[in-house]
Amino acid sequence: MDNIQLEQFIKSLDNDLDIKLGKQFPEVTVPASKLYYIARQLREREEALFDFLFCLTGVDYGSELGVTYHLRSTRYGHSVVLKVRTTDRENPEFQSVTNIWKTAEFHEREVFDLLGIKFTGHPDLRRLFLESSFGFPLRKDYSDDVNVVTR
Amino acid sequence: MEEEAKDIINDDQEYVINMGPQHPSTHGVLRLVLSLKGEIVRNVEPHIGYIHRGIEKMCESITYPQIIHLTDRMDYLSAHINNEAVCLNVENALEIEIPERVKVIRTLMSELTRIQSHQLWWASFGMDLGGLTCFFYGLRDREKILDIFEETCGGRMIVSYSCPGGLMYDIHPNFQKRVKEFVKYFRKTLPEYDDLLTGNVIFRERTAGVGKLSLEDAISYGVTGPSGRASGFSCDVRKHEPYSAYDRVSFNEVLYTEGDTYHRYLARIEEMRESMNIIDQLIDNIPEGPYAVKMKPIIRLPEGEYYQSVETARGELGVFIISDGNKNPFRIKFRSPNFTNLSALNLMAKGFKIADLVAIGGSLDLVIPDIDR
């Protein structure tokens, strides 16, 4: 499917989604409550078949925290970007996609480790790189007087 | 005391041991916590982060030309290809047209990088399995590529040769001659690799059928590069989304369907041959022209999100930049191939013996600084 067909397909899954045709990939902003449903549909529907999650990025936008999913279909070669955001900085939580794409298991642990975003339904959500007393270094409000030099 | 130790091993219960962080076959500071039953591996749990340097965080406070030098330190065996990934991303974001000469030289350097990386992998893989000769053969040949790098880039491993807009400096006058000499030489010595390992009965017994990864699992776990292609996952970025000069060369994507350790090994050996074919097609056709375009002293990317993937020696490296229009990225993410390949290790090693785990880990060709970043 090309980008316009993809847009129509995603519209047919849920009409309220915000779809932007970016320069590279179509970008779909999904509310956190619908993330799992949309991800599952994109993976399983025969005409979309996004079976390869090739990048999972946690982002701190300042006031919001979010996760970006880059998906590709190995059969059709088309790609799409899913985005989800939350304003809750104290206890950010999204549904895990580990049982759709196994690779998310490591990536979600990384996001949890560096940004403190929790994923419900993750089989083994522990810190990956850092020790438990460490803060969440990829957050914009993270401060470390010793190791981070601001110029 | 002796009796107790005997009991643990002969007991039906599982027991847990640490492999690493300092272990010769983990190739760096990777700690694997193994649950064993006798000698059979029941579960592998990788513990990583021993050399986590926070490269993504560091990049948020430095400029794009400075980031190039940090990417060398991720997968240090694919240093040039990592540089290229960031350069391509910045150039595409700024919509700069790059001279043909740069594209061809970058492709040549990438392929040389791939060959030397596979040579070192072959050398250490042989050593993991107990053949010390491989190590000397592999490093003997790799040295010749490093000498070419040294002459042109100044660095042997950490080359930092690409920069946004082109190359740091032009190629050395000897470059073409020496690369041709090397290809001629390596075509003669590559069959030695086959004589030593590929056809070796002991080697085959230890690798064939060990650590199978099905195509579905390879895609689901995101295992790319030669490891993924050995399972039949057609994931070569050079074929599917050609960058630099890959659209004008013909080469085969090495694909197997078996997905065991032996075929991951074969995939890399074949890739070295394909890389030499690519070099043959380009080495006499380096176009004349400038080796870089003039860039503004301070590079600011327009606001937006940019993704670029390249094929390193280990798989798909993705660089995802979110820019807010400043001279440093708002967020940069490196999708490293080793990180995702490692996640499939548990699945592949379950049910095999510890010695097989060494073979499986070696066939994934893990580089730890790329996992930790």
Textual characterization of the structure:
The complex is a heterodimer of chains A (151) and B (373). Chain A is 22% helix and 26% strand. Chain A is of the alpha/beta class. Chain A has one domain: Beta Polymerase, domain 2 (2-Layer Sandwich). In chain A, strand 6 (93-95), helix 3 (104-115) and strand 7 form a beta-alpha-beta unit. The model of chain A has no long low-confidence stretch (mean pLDDT 85). With 373 residues, chain B is α+β, with helices and mostly antiparallel strands. Chain B has one domain: Cytochrome-c3 Hydrogenase, chain B (Orthogonal Bundle). Helices cover 50% and strands 13% of the residues of chain B. In chain B, the strands form four sheets. In chain B, strands 1-4-5 form a three-stranded antiparallel sheet. In chain B, strands 8-9-10 form a three-stranded antiparallel sheet. In chain B, helix 3 (64-71) packs antiparallel against helix 4 (79-94) and helix 5 runs antiparallel to helix 12. Chain B starts with a helix and ends with a helix.
Question: Short description, anyone?
Answer:
Chain A has 151 residues and is α/β, with parallel strands linked by helices.
Helix-strand pattern of chain B, N to C? HEEEEEHHHHHEEHHHHHHEEEHHHH
Helix content, binned percent of chain B:
40-55%
Helical fraction of chain A equals 10-25%
Termini separation of chain A (Å)? 47 Å
The tally of beta strands of chain B, per DSSP, is 10
Structural class of chain B: alpha+beta
Round the mean pLDDT of chain A to the nearest integer and report it: 85
**What oligomeric state is this?**
heterodimer
Q: What name goes with the CATH superfamily of chain B?
A: Cytochrome-c3 Hydrogenase, chain B
Radius of gyration of chain A: 16 Å
Question: Sheet bearing the most strands of chain A, described?
Answer: 5 strands, mixed
Number of strands of chain A: 7
Radius of gyration of chain B: 21 Å
Please give the count of helices of chain A.
3
Low-confidence stretches of chain A: none
- What is the CATH architecture term of chain B? Orthogonal Bundle
